[in-house]
Specification:
This protein is α+β, with helices and mostly antiparallel strands. The protein is built from four helices and four strands; from the N terminus they run αββαβαβα. β3, α3 and β4 form a beta-alpha-beta unit. It is globular, with a radius of gyration of 14 Å.
């Protein structure tokens, strides 16, 4: 299940800012970047809607897997997990989260990816 629109982070300016100044948390299979939100970087139609939770994005490049089917499965798995973990956490409103999978992530079991995601969220102060 995909992230709801209110939780999605979109736009190249947001991604560029997260890459430049976001606080990084490294794992074996992914990198998590977190920063306070900057609404001026969002598109005008998204600025009007206040966020009830943090906004999240996933980056899964073709280096992870050449097969789009595999990348989409990983994306759906992590979207569902992020939704379950963060959707009802109002205390996290005002933060942006970017998760980038490393090429080695394709060799990991789904349970290992979810465990690492949880540990990175906890180290970033977003865990439960």
């Amino acid at each position: 299940m995909a992230l709801p629109a209110s939780m999605r982070l979109r736009g190249h300016r947001c991604f560029n800012r997260l890459h430049r100044i976001g606080r990084r948390h490294h794992g074996d299979w992914m990198v998590l970047r977190v920063m306070p939100e900057e609404p001026r970087l969002l598109r005008p139609e998204l600025r009007r809607h206040p966020t009830r939770c943090c906004r999240c994005a996933l980056v899964i490049s073709s280096k992870v897997s050449k097969r789009a089917v595999r990348r989409n499965r990983l994306r759906r798995l992590l979207h569902q997990h992020l939704r379950q973990q963060l959707e009802h956490r109002g205390d996290l409103a005002g933060r942006w989260v970017l998760i980038s999978l490393r090429p080695e992530a394709s060799e990991a079991e789904p349970s290992q990816l979810l465990e690492e995601c949880d540990s990175l969220l906890s180290s970033a102060g977003l865990g439960q």
